[in-house]
């Protein structure tokens, strides 16, 4: 029926009254794809496809789209089949059989980990708060006042005044120069007659220069020859040319531990004048059970750091270094043993003169008054200068 | 693994032939044979039995389509193949849900499979689109399209079902529906 085929193709091109042009074409394509055409129709349509690229692409598109619909339907069908099979399986029983039961702790964690986390956070927070409010977190050194006299602020002001005065009187500026009395100060004492002096490490930390001033007011320049921060010990050497000799040291170093209850005394320079303080050895350990230290009950102040601690027989038993701010009358002193150890540890090449610590004890049996009198030339004010 | 020695487990070639011949019983035996293995994998790796069902069916569909299109080459045991695909799918899903802790408890040996699941994914997207386009199409268009293109019903049958006076009317309606379906399908992102 060639005539009919021609009519259809023709009407597909110009449109028809019954179907829109598009539907007609789609219908033709569908019949073509489904193989419902006669041989002649088919040949004619194929000719049209090769001639008209538009028709050709429409054929491909239609084929693809209807295939997609078909595949979609097949997929739905397959899923339905699989679901039907699945429904026959007793999943619950299988699940119980196959689930590896983790240990109690793991299960606990899996089921409750959010709650556990929250609880832990709250606990940590509470602990931190408690510690914060009880003051535990504030630096423990706060309680532990190192007895280094801090005169920096005052000095700063003096320096400012000084510059003011100088600028007001430029001509007399030189004469008015005020000697800087030192940014920090502490106490030190001689350990040998040829000018080795011991003080606390914390007194001289950060120093640019260190001077010692004797009871008679004479001041000598010194050099730091050795420090031992962990036991808070520093050894100075007087390097000033005006220094001669001190004479034999009037006290000896007591190696054995002293007993609790022994009466002890110290001298130092918390002020410009030498201050005497007496008390008892109250504990054989220091701050927070530090076994390198003694606790004593002698009254001390800032500036006493580095002062000698002696027993009633004139034996040196320690170096005063700190006090507990929270405990009334608790002062700490580094034990002599650690001083001797530090002296022994000084490298030989950093010493310019032999360091001989053997003193002759001339204080034994004397009262405090006489002891201090004999002692005073061997105890120095340590002045520390830094920028 | 007492599960493995189940008399119902079909041999690998049985499965392939069965799928090609649309055998319902082979599909069922296949499904029942390997589901416990996948259930074990999923529920012991942070998943539920529903998750297991989802990914297992996805894997079966991947296998099914591959066999149907003829580009399935079995280079390992079918069991290993299914396990590998499910493992891969489950890892992907875990990562998407941010539940992947970095290690997975394995119960079988597995191969590295990759591209196949990707290809399947693309197809899934198209099917999803088609599903929602059909949903939006509404009745009676949806049924007409489904009857004709999916269920292979003749125009005559459809005409009777919907009470159209003649087949030409039904045809016109069908083409209108198809036109709208195409529009809806391609409109989606």
Describe the fold and architecture:
The complex is a heterodimer of chains A (387) and B (189). Chain A is an alpha+beta fold. Chain A has two domains: 2-83; 145-387, Beta Barrel (Thrombin, subunit H). In chain A, 39% of the residues lie in helices and 22% in strands. Chain A has a six-stranded antiparallel β-barrel. A six-stranded antiparallel β-barrel of chain A has the order 3-4-7-6-5-15. In chain A, strand 12 and strand 13 (315-324) form a beta hairpin. Chain B has 189 residues and is mainly alpha-helical. Chain B has two domains: 12-113, Rna Polymerase Sigma Factor, Chain: A; 121-187, Orthogonal Bundle (Arc Repressor Mutant, subunit A), CATH 1.10.10. Helix content of chain B is 69%, strand content 0%. Chain B is built from eight helices and no strands. Chain B has helices at residues 12-20, 24-43, 49-69, 78-96, 115-137, 141-150, 155-162, 167-187. In chain B, helix 1 crosses helix 2 (24-43) and helix 6 packs across helix 8. Chain B is elongated, with a radius of gyration of 21 Å. Residues 1-7 of chain B have low confidence and may be disordered. Chains A and B meet through helix 2, helix 4 and helix 5 of A and helix 2, helix 3, helix 5, helix 6 and helix 8 of B.
Counted by DSSP, the helix tally of chain B is 8
Which strands sit side by side, in order, in the main sheet of chain A?
9-10-11-14-13-12
H/E series of chain A: HHHHHHEEHEEHEEEEEEEEEEHHE
- Low-confidence region ranges of chain B: 1-7
> Count the strands of chain A?
15
